[in-house]
Write a structure and sequence with these properties.
Length: about 80
C-alpha cells in the first residue's frame, strides 16, 4: 500500500502496488489501475484517473511521460 497526497490535498491509497522508497521516482502501472475498474481521460497534456465521475489521480505530460501531480506520503 502506498499513500499519495494529491494535487487537491486529499490523501489517496494505492493498494496492491510495489514501492521502493529509496528510488526518487516510481512508476504507476496504468494496467494495474485499470484492474481496479478505474477509467482514464486524457486531453491537452493532462491525464485523469477516474472512479465513477470523481478524479482520484491526475498527471501532466512532460517528454511523453505523465508525471503524477502529488507526492508520496512518508513517515519522515
Amino acid at each position: 500500500m502506498v499513500l499519495i497526497k494529491m494535487f487537491d490535498e486529499m490523501v489517496r491509497e494505492l493498494k496492491d502496488v510495489g514501492c521502493v522508497p529509496q528510488i526518487k521516482k516510481n512508476l504507476i502501472s496504468v494496467r494495474g489501475l485499470e484492474i481496479h475498474n478505474l477509467e482514464f481521460s486524457g486531453r491537452d497534456g493532462v491525464l485523469k484517473v477516474l472512479k465513477s465521475s470523481m478524479v482520484i489521480l491526475k498527471g501532466v505530460r512532460r517528454n511523453n511521460l505523465y508525471y503524477l501531480m502529488g507526492n508520496t506520503v512518508t513517515d519522515n
